[in-house]
# Entry
Amino acid sequence: MKRLLIGLAIAAIAAFNTLPVSAETTIRVTLQLPEKHSLGQNWLAFKKIVEEKSEGELKIELFPSAQLYKDKQVPEAVGSGAIEAGSAFLGRFAGSVPAVEVINVPFLFDTEEKLRAATKGGSEIREILDAAVLKETGARVLWWQAFGRNIYLSKDAPIRVPADLKGKKVRTYGKILGWTVEALGGAPTLMSGSKQFLAYQQGAVDVGMTGAATIESRKLYEVMNHATLSYDSAVEFVAIINNKFFEGLSKKNQDIILDAAATVEQDLRDYIYANETVVVDGVRSKINIIELTEAERDQWRQATKGVGDRFAKERGDIAAQVIKAARSL
# Structure
């Protein structure tokens, strides 16, 4: 009897070990900003959808506030597979895909409608750029993360027309933006976003380029007196995943990820453009808001119209393709 019971126990254990076990796959995500920021909230929304739809097969683990990698390290970290996924400023890919800076060509996407059309998944511009990023880095673009549109900040005098920038030192955050400043008569100074406040406070630069939302989030109204809503270019981040990792997932889980990406991309873009207006209205009592007339904007367009042609000529064949696609919008 004892031998029989032992035999039954062994058989039960063997049977249990042959039962299918649902494997859990963790996707680690490196973020530059805290989870409370719009980009962090965007990933949390993605996490919720993916984990629910995959019924626990996929788990998203976020590492916010640059805990693991600095922004400039993210393309290499994700592309190499050192981490599965992350968000990076689109301009960080310019070293391998110079054409990504098309988003910074001034007045190429001078309306919200054009910007939405250009950045929408499946657009000609997205198809060209996303494929180039994948080919050159090994990172697959899941979605573009809207951050806002470009504005100019100044302390001593408001900026209304290009002549107001002549001889001024201007903080920029990309090569093409430097070309724009030069076309406007200023002197570009490349500087990370985190260094803005101190640079403005100490007078290291005269004028700042930044996204509209940062007036409030970085409290730039404490060190600058005027904000010019030029909205001449856009600030974009991209959510990326290591392509080998992605292709190793089941078709079902790949589809879950892609569907979730499309959903959160649209939701974030809607939020950012609506929130720009809210943010600007919220700081009107703290900083002088300058909204350009159409005649004034035309002066900016005329002064910078050569930047797009220079971009197409100097940044390679892909840049020429995306400029052509953008101008056809």
